[in-house]
Amino acid sequence: MTETTANEQQPQGKFAIQKIYVKDLSFEAPNSPACFTEQWDPKVNLDLNSSAQGVAEHNYEVVLSITVTVGNNDKTAYLVEVQQAGIFHIEEFPDSMLRAMLGSFCPSILFPYAREAVSDIVTRGGFPQMLLNPINFDALYEQHLQQQTQQADTSQPQ
């Protein structure tokens, strides 16, 4: 009788980062230079989205979109939009794991790059450094799955 290891029982998936790049970057400071003379009491709003699409066999483009809007004294001080993208080679994973990788794992890889782009462009715009807090993409993905389940339950006829 031969022993089988866990590695032999389950197929090993393949994952590789092919490319990481900025797909789109925008910065606006609509109230400058007046905003530089006012007392700085920022109100920050962060919008975060991700999307994924196949680009070739076993290759997927994942785009992490971040919009940061900072207001000061009821006016927009600045607005930053970053689309940080990557191409990932993913194969031999079950569909549920593939979806989790595209919806959570890959965006978590892209986030530090997007965070750096936001910080850099805000500083170049003359504003205090903007450091985005870490984000738990696993929790966001799980929340997304729960919302989809609830929507499916409510759309089913009773």
Protein model, in words:
A hairpin with a 2-residue loop joins strand 3 and strand 4 (75-91). Helix content is 34%, strand content 39%. It is α+β, with helices and mostly antiparallel strands and 158 residues long. It has a single domain (13-140), classed as Roll (Bacterial Protein-export protein SecB). The chain has helices spanning 6-9, 95-124, 137-155; strands at 14-28, 42-56, 59-72, 75-91. The protein has 3 helices and 4 strands. It has a 4-stranded antiparallel beta sheet with strand order 1-4-3-2. It is globular and about 55 Å long. Helix 2 crosses helix 3 (137-155).
Task: State the gist of this model.
The protein is α+β, with helices and mostly antiparallel strands and 158 residues long.
Topology overview:
Elements: H1 6-9, E1 14-28, E2 42-56, E3 59-72, E4 75-91, H2 95-124, H3 137-155
Antiparallel strand pairs: 1-4, 2-3, 3-4
Helix pairs in contact: 2-3
